[in-house]
Protein: C2H2-type domain-containing protein
Organism: Halovivax cerinus
Amino acid sequence: MAWECGIDGCGSVFEDVESAIAHQADAHERRECEICGTVVPDGFLAIYHTFTNHSRAEYVRAYDADSAAIRTREKLLDDVTSAIDQEVLAEMLGSS
Ligand SMILES: [Zn+2]
Ligand SMILES: [Zn+2]
């Protein structure tokens, strides 16, 4: 499966999710979580942070999201967490 970086129409494609996440952390600005203020890399890790640390209701309030936006992100999160090496993921989150 190919992983495409969707930040600001970047469109870079990677063969594995670890490379895509490393790219997003390196090449793009970090963002502050609108809910708790933690600074996280944009893209997959930002979604991972939001959906594992906060409730759907908090997400909707902070980001003015609709249910379609939530479904899209939940699907992406599923794909990422099933594909990624958990140790890599932990390391990426720990280094932020
Ligand atoms: Zn990118
Ligand atoms: Zn947060």
Observations:
- The two ends are 26 Å apart (CA to CA).
- The pocket of zinc ion (ligand 1) is lined by residues 5, 7, 10, 12, 23-24, 27-28 (CB under 6 Å).
